[in-house]
Amino acid sequence: QVQLVESGGALVQPGGSLRLSCAASGIMFSIYIMHWYRQAPGKQRELVASIRTGGSTTYVESVKGRFTISRDNAKNMVYLQMNSLKPEDTALYYCHAGGDFGPWGQGTQVTVSS
User: What does residue 30 show for φ and ψ, rounded to 5 degrees?
Assistant: First the structure.
């Protein structure tokens, strides 16, 4: 059974930090490109960051220098370290494996507010 489970979302003040985790099971994790997406209320889902099997990463412009995606193939985990959080980072954050037909997690809520 393929499953992605996110955790780590919370309410945090502007300027704060959070680390999101995504645990994968039922897939050969090491061969998958992994992504973090987010969706804010009333907005389309947005690709935030991706990490390839070799470790190369890409980010949406709005999070460059603040967010870091990483993976641990031995643990089937992918992470998103988020620093200097802003209110506009508030969204439901999803983990996604592979391409268009890959599995998705259920999401973890990140709220940035004072």
Answer: -65, -20
What is the mean pLDDT of the segment spanning 47-54? 96
- Cα–Cα distance between 82 and 72 in angstroms, integer? 17
The strand pair at 57-59 and 46-51 is best described as antiparallel
Q: Chain-centre distance of CA 27, in angstroms?
A: 18
Could you say which DSSP state residue 54 is in? Answer: T
**Nearest 5°: phi and psi at 2?**
-80, 130
Residue type, 59: Y
Q: Running DSSP on this structure, what letter comes out for residue 85?
A: -
How far apart are alpha carbons 73 and 54 in whole angstroms? 11
SS3 66: coil
Residue 54, Cβ density class (10 Å: 0-12 exposed, 13-18 middle, ≥19 buried)? exposed
Note the pLDDT tens digit of each residue in 13-33: 999 999 999 999 998 888 899
